[in-house]
């Protein structure tokens, strides 16, 4: 009787390296770009980039919004002008909402004309904007530690005592807020949950991923990945080279848009995730 012989083939298993960023392109000659927001026009995507074009805390009418292609090609740099240090943006239907120092500005996307200005009472430095599934618009004020909410055409204080409130993103679980070096989850009933801490600088932009993770930027030059189970990974450290302001993300193409603020450009990265 022949003895049985079993042949084993060793197959090496490579450890998953985690998410990473690959620089694809850079759009130069922007004017202090602060925020990038994807605008879906039918089957085409357009990119809106806010330009402070001057100091970040001055009412000077020099700021505006530039219109770019999805891959970063400039289409119309003066798509909208006459704003005051515009920063974060969000889209609801045919309206673009822009944080404009002490006002939330509503812009018609078809005509690029301002529809309405909503003053935020006692605000100092409006910074980021998001829209939830119900159509409510939220805007943060970093200097007064507040979040305002636009409801039924009225902009009013919604939450306060949120340290250095900046990056906002409405999700199905609640409002995610970059509060200094912490990432918080805020509920409509006022409940606050700490999602993560340990960022090396104050948070600027927040973008959720389909798997429950987040991409988070810190203005000084850091971009992080926060996994759904709370693991924080530094994806980009450009602190000595350029800023990483209010990021935008295109889930369809896995492109991450990074306004470089004082470096006056927009960097486009491929996120491998």
Keywords:
273 residues, mainly beta, Methylamine Dehydrogenase, Chain H, 4-stranded antiparallel β-sheet, 24 strands, disordered N terminus
Summarize the structure.
It contains no helices and 24 strands. The chain has 273 residues and is mostly beta strands.
* N-to-C series of helices and strands: EEEEEEEEEEEEEEEEEEEEEEEE
Task: Name the CATH superfamily classification of one domain.
Answer: YVTN repeat-like/Quinoprotein amine dehydrogenase
| Unreliably modeled segments | 1-16
First-last Cα distance: 54 Å
Strand content: over 45%
Task: Provide the spatial order of strands within the biggest beta sheet.
Answer: 1-24-23-22
Oligomer type:
single chain
CATH first level of one domain: Mainly Beta
Q: Give the fraction of residues assigned to helices.
A: under 10%
Task: Summarize the structure in words.
By secondary structure, the protein is mainly β. It has a domain at 92-272: Methylamine Dehydrogenase, Chain H, CATH 2.130.10. It has strands spanning 20-27, 33-41, 44-51, 63-69, 74-83, 89-92, 95-100, 103-108, 113-119, 126-131, 137-141, 146-151, 154-159, 165-171, 174-179, 182-186, 192-197, 203-208, 214-218, 222-226, 232-237, 248-250, 255-259, 266-272. A four-stranded antiparallel beta sheet has the order 1-24-23-22, with no helix packed on it. Strands 2-3-4-5 form a four-stranded antiparallel beta sheet, with no helix packed on it. The chain has a four-stranded antiparallel beta sheet with strand order 6-7-8-9, with no helix packed on it. The radius of gyration is 20 Å and the shape is globular. The relative contact order is 0.15. Mean pLDDT is 93; it is low at 1-16.
